[in-house]
Amino acid sequence: MCCESKRRFLLLYATQKGQAKAIAEEIWQQAGAHGLEADMHCISEMDKYNLETEKDPVVIVISTTGTGEPPDTARKFVKKIQDKTLPPDHFAHLQYGLLGLGDSEYMFFCNGGRTVDRRLQELGAQHFYDTGLADDCVGLELVVDPWIDGLWLALKEALQLQKEGMNNAVDAVSSSLSTAPHAVHELNLISEVQNLKLEDEAARGSDVLSQKLDDINLVAPARDTEPSLIHSVPPVSQSALNIPALPPEYIEVQFQDTQGENPHLSSLISEGTTFEVPVTKAVQLTREDAIKTALLLELDIADTAFEYQPGDAFCVICPNNVSEVEELLHILGLSEKGDDFVCVSVKQGTKKKGASRPQHIPERSTLKFILTWCLEIRAIPKKAFLRALVECTSNVGEKRRLQELCSRQGASDYTRFIRDSNVCLLDLLHAFPSCKPSLSLLIEHLPKLQTRFYSVSSSNLYQPGSLCFVFNVVEFPAGPSRPVSRKGVCTGWLAELVAPLLHPSENTLDTKGERFSTEKISIFPRPNNAFHLPADPSVPFIMVGPGTGISPFIGFLQHRQKLREQHTDWEFGETWLFFGCRHQDRDYLFKQVHYLTSILCFLENGTLTHLKVCFSRDTSTAEAARPKYVQDVLRLCAKEVARVLLKERGYFYVCGDKKHMADDVSDAIVDILSMEMEADRLEAMKILAMLREAKRYLQDVWS
């Protein structure tokens, strides 16, 4: 029940993977300590709030998904406020503050938040607090924490509730995102630091604990001079800590004696219709000694209503690794109960506002089903999860280190040893063996197991009833924070699934001696609104796709070849492909593929008019000056590239790695435009921005 109207503010969140919701919940939890109450709702619940009549300040936390779109939960809201018939003073009464979440690895950083922010401004809404844009690439908390710190004073000013002496802890916090620690909403552990030291005086692991002042001069063993996941050094090891408030428990799990069937995988997906389709072929596109293993899979969609265009993406519903699930069950002491059915419900009397069973968790299923198909057990633990794990840890040294990792003082350690090291729950449980979390805690804090996106690498016109895609099998090597190497959740599963097709035995050959498979995977479409061939076939286009970035362009070329065969009287524009890999003889993808047309065949039959390749690791004395990367080859073709883009109004497509390729390609295009137009770099950047706006410079990239 909300308190007085003057002390209330509306808190809206729009989330795709749960991060925006978690941050909104943190704001909701802290509000009470500041004499405020947050009326919190998902932005999609438009029947529970009304911005047209809202008089109190509004706080919005919104993430970004895809290529800069608002999350799915915000689509209806965004569509509503983008109504062009709304007058410019529609929200003139509204005061708001917005926190956008994004990843600067992608072109349209925080575009979900920026879109909403810009439109609210256009409709007359006023900021009561500066917009914050948090970057998941470097750590959301670097902006989120100080933004929340400054929020309370801004809210009180907006509500005209600030009273002298009301909250001394926020006196030093300004709306310009001060980074000063905020003591009111966090627990001060000065006394606990001393208690931990006293309780574990005799323990050999006491080097991870805070030291008393008279202990500082003790010489630590050489192995203790560097921090690690399980070990801290001064000043963190000697600091009083400010840690987050303990998140309230809200999930209850009850084991049942009854049997039954697990839910169908389609029930876990809200995005649309799912299709269970057979994997009919698998080809390894790289040699065994290549640094990365690239696989091509073909799916049979002939008996389904699945539709796609070249350039589209689709999603694969994948499970967690079986051995990791078994290992987690063992650590939780539930090895014998994996196949038992459990009932998941909201805990009676919980203090969590609006608590509900997470949508991705079935009300009733086996324990193994939840850990296999529902929870992202590989997710990097958030600080709130670490805070909750503190309460499940019995060893005082381990307890202290977990407190440090979720504290303000340990922020750099969290970034280095958890975030940047890609540590997951299993890694933590190995590193802190006295930590024994409950199953309910895992359900509360582990996010939904996300589907994985892949670009289509075929044309339904060229291969009716088939869908192909290409991927590298992702490898995570062992390291100081990760005791064992791992493969990617989805790519590792797919590689294991199709191993019989790649390495056939007598059991995988039919009567004609051909490979066959009975394995099926569940998929659903994720159409791309822009990354398609030009509608006019006479328009030329350039494709840049090193490595597996070539994948959608195989579909482009297949489609173009079929159109050329069917419409001999049409005029077709020239096509350019810039491809790069490490070694010509190891990972030159699609150079030769037995049952598909190779890129050399596309070149020979005229479907592809220009092929430019480069090999970054193949060097010799005679070839020292040869270009290594696709951006270098583009510069060598500057006049032709500029001609296609400027004179012939062609299209430019980029697919592949964002950080190590797409940005460099963008820089190369700016240089080319600047040189060929004899314009300064700023003018060239404006031209590139216009090409993007006109959907003639298109990207399908990943980090």
UniProtKB/TrEMBL annotation:
GO BP terms in the entry: cobalamin metabolic process; folic acid metabolic process; homocysteine metabolic process; methionine biosynthetic process
Protein localization: Cytoplasm
Limits of the FAD-binding FR-type domain: 272-534
Keywords: Amino-acid biosynthesis, Cytoplasm, FAD, Flavoprotein, FMN, Methionine biosynthesis, NADP, Oxidoreductase, Phosphoprotein, S-adenosyl-L-methionine
InterPro entries in the record: CysJ-like_FAD-binding, FAD-bd_FR_type, Flavdoxin-like, Flavodoxin/NO_synth, Flavoprot_Pyr_Nucl_cyt_Rdtase, Flavoprotein-like_sf, FNR_nucleotide-bd, NADPH_Cyt_P450_Rdtase_alpha
Main location as per UniProt: cytoplasm
Source domain of life: Eukaryota
GO cellular component labels: cytosol
Flavodoxin-like domain sequence ranges: 9-152
Cofactor annotation: FAD; FMN
Gene Ontology molecular-function annotations: [methionine synthase] reductase (NADPH) activity; flavin adenine dinucleotide binding; FMN binding
EC annotation from Swiss-Prot or TrEMBL: 1.16.1.8
Pfam family, one: NAD_binding_1
Catalytic activity: 2 cob(II)alamin + A + 2 H2O + 2 H(+) = 2 aquacob(III)alamin + AH2
Entry-linked CDD domains: methionine_synthase_red (cd06203)
Assembly description: Forms a multiprotein complex with MMACHC, MMADHC and MTR.
Name this polypeptide is given: Methionine synthase reductase
Organism annotation: Orthonyx spaldingii
Primary gene name: Mtrr
